[in-house]
Amino acid sequence: KFVANNKQRKVQVLPRPRAAFRRRYWCESRIGYFEFRIRANMSGTVNYEEVKAAVSDPTVLIIDVRGPEEVQSTGKIGNSINIPVADVAEALKDGESFREKYGRAIPSHEDAIIFHCLKGGRAQKASDAALALGFKNSKYYPGSYSEWSSKN
Q1: Which of 51, 77, 117, 129 is catalytic?
Q2: Sorted alphabetically, which InterPro entries does this protein's record hold (predicted)?
Q3: CA distance 102 to 63
C-alpha cells in the first residue's frame, strides 16, 4: 500500500517490516531439542611449583606440544621433549620409535607425564589423548610456557 509519493519516490508501509526483512535477508537455523552431558575435564592439572619440581625428577616426563619452530623461537621448560600436539597419540603408541626419536624410553601407563604448550589449550588436548591411550597419570600445565617464562 502506497502512503505517499515524494517527488518520484514511493514510500510504502509494511505491516510487519521486521518479519518481511527477516524472511528476505536473514538466514536462521533452528536446532531441535538435544541432550548432552557436561563432564569435568578428563585431564588433571599441575601448577608452576609442581612443574618446577618435575624438572629435576627423572621419573616425570615433560612433553612440550608446540611446533619445533615455536620452541626454538621462545625456549623450553627444563628437560622437556618436543612432540607436536598432532603427533602425540601416534608417538605414545610405539615404544621403539619413541626411543629412536626422543632419546628416552616410552613412559609406562603408570608414569607421570606433564604436557605443556604456550598457554595450555594444546596441552590439554594432548593430555586427554594420552589418557585415552591408557596413560593414567597424564596431566597438563594450564599456565604452560607463558607462566613459566614469566617466573624464570
Answers
A1: 117
A2: Rhodanese-like_dom, Rhodanese-like_dom_sf
A3: 10
Count structural domains, the chain.
1
- Distance CA(72)–CA(99), nearest Å, equals 22
Phi and psi dihedrals of 3, rounded to 5? -100, -40
Residue 93 inside a domain? The answer is: yes
Question: What are the backbone angles phi and psi of residue 50, rounded to the nearest 5°?
Answer: -65, -40
**Digit-coded pLDDT (tens) for 16-62:** 555 555 555 545 555 555 554 444 455 689 999 999 999 999 999 99
DSSP string, 83-138: --GGGHHHHTT-HHHHHHHHSSPPPPTTS-EEEE-SSSHHHHHHHHHHHHTT-TTE
Please report whether residue 32 resides in a domain: no
Q: How many CA atoms lie within 13 A of 108 on its CB side?
A: 3
Q: Is residue 7 part of a domain?
A: no
Q: What is the pTM of this model?
A: 0.72
CATH of the domain at 105: 3.40.250.10
Question: Is 117 a catalytic site residue?
Answer: yes
